[in-house]
């Protein structure tokens, strides 16, 4: 709770002890949280947050917390190779060199969580993972859910199948613990998820290795995660007099995001309904598009954000893909009953996505956004890898030769 809300968190952010709110909530505790809170309340008794001495507060934090990320250890993926066979088949020498440089980056991003976290997790915001993993990098020291999908595609391309399997096992352990996969590997992310791509990760691994035993062992976990979305993110809407079931992003949190606490507090100053604002901000973060004018009521400013009122085509397409992959997996292990169930579920849901959400109605392209003067990163002119990949895959899988060439 120190990492998610409370006076200590508020004080650290009010006095801006760090340039990034995420720094404090990533710092392991030297002592049990109850003891730290008792000491904080004793030292700053009857002092309002704004009147706390900043220097004394910084000393207190340094005495009771260790540096951000100190529960992590660098590691070397044992299946890494400097010249993966698949990359060496790239004909263009410049592209091949670029791919090999990317392959070398795996060595800088591999992390292992200190085993002490597993046995004393109350002092850490990190969610314990049993295996090594590849982190995104920069301020993102932990796993991130949908980021992991493209990391795994890269690992498979580099023939790092053991590391791929280990990362999928990590995420499976998170589902078994919490019933879903949070946005990232910190306790303060447990109020929201990320686009559901665990089944897609398993598909990438299975297609490369044909490891049927592992695939089979993961199916109950894939179904459990899908159940989370069906139980918590599904809504019924009436379109042209007909009831349809669709999905939306909708975080349970209605407070400032701990990792962006100060920004969320500042942004909410001019908003009347702050709790609704913070829920919609967290829900936009759940989408991975944090932030884009697609979530804004006026298509201009974050103050009009209304994520929970929007039925995103991309989320519903991801859910549809989950049904398709489960159909495929169960067919591969000979469970025709479940395979047929997911085939029928997918067919019905796919019809809703195509006919009711307008997925194919945009004329002449699939823009991230055409808002040219936005201050948000998920807007024109930025092109993000996840969207480019989806467009490329859509063109590649089409039946149109011209689109395939494109």
UniProtKB/TrEMBL annotation:
<protein>
    <recommendedName>
        <fullName>Trehalase</fullName>
        <ecNumber>3.2.1.28</ecNumber>
    </recommendedName>
</protein>
<dbReference type="Pfam" id="PF01204">
    <property type="entry name" value="Trehalase"/>
</dbReference>
<comment type="similarity">
    <text>Belongs to the glycosyl hydrolase 37 family.</text>
</comment>
<dbReference type="GO" id="GO:0005993">
    <property type="term" value="P:trehalose catabolic process"/>
</dbReference>
<dbReference type="InterPro" id="IPR008928">
    <property type="entry name" value="6-hairpin_glycosidase_sf"/>
</dbReference>
<keyword id="KW-0378">Hydrolase</keyword>
<dbReference type="GO" id="GO:0004555">
    <property type="term" value="F:alpha,alpha-trehalase activity"/>
</dbReference>
<dbReference type="InterPro" id="IPR012341">
    <property type="entry name" value="6hp_glycosidase-like_sf"/>
</dbReference>
<dbReference type="InterPro" id="IPR001661">
    <property type="entry name" value="Glyco_hydro_37"/>
</dbReference>
<keyword id="KW-0326">Glycosidase</keyword>
<dbReference type="InterPro" id="IPR018232">
    <property type="entry name" value="Glyco_hydro_37_CS"/>
</dbReference>
